[in-house]
Amino acid sequence: MRRVGLTRIRSILLLFLVSVIAYSPVTIYANAQTTSGLVCVSRVSYSCPIVQPVYTGRPGTQLSVNVVVQGAEPFDAYSVVIGVNSSILQPVGVNATGGLLPNINSMICTGGQSDPCAHWVGLGPGDVRVAGWGSVTNTTGVDFTVSSSGSISNQSVTTGLLFTITYEVRAETKGTQIVLFDQVSPSGWSCACALFSNSVKGESFQSNVQGGWFSNSSLLFGDVNGDCRVDLLDVVLILFAWGSMQGSVNWNPSADLNGDGKVDLIDFYAAVMNYGSVC
Description:
With 279 residues, this protein is of the alpha+beta class. Helix content is 14%, strand content 32%.
């Protein structure tokens, strides 16, 4: 019985090591303290939007979401996790075509048998972990120049596509989040950030993150008063409910377009982007 127990422990440890080696080909130092740049989801491959984008799509179709880094220090490796509600959006593929670093390893968490994320604490169905590596994105060796007055110029930063993830739209929803975070190892710490490394300098850093929203309700998105058009009245209703949440005097659930329990800039932005639409 004792031999069987030792064999089982060895098997578990071996599986753990295989998962670390297979899905962590880059060196990201867990003690990274500095923060540089922003990682976001974006409709374009070359910059991050000012506010979180709102995606849409009919059930049965596919949706492509770009993951972009903006204004980060030069790097040659990264690690990031994208999370969605898998009952609404099912991740089906990841590619780095046109990306800053050509090499990636990715895990798509399914929650079923043979799920590559099964031993990663903190990851679940709908999560996708991507680790990328390649040449340093800027090789000048000069991060920035400081003038005699103390102003910074010639700053060497990186902006561009990391990878694109494809989802299958599975159901209708008024609103669901697309979130970015990281999970460093199967039993390691997680953060609301993306992690980067520059092996030339022997340094690591983390970035801020900005997610997005998905909504494909059969109701016209942005039509707060239900008159089958998105117009000035809908925008005014959102402004009247601005800053409110359930229990607030000015709370209007119809103005909460993305269903996150509050009326804010995302709802206003979504209505403006859909302004003039009719049923």
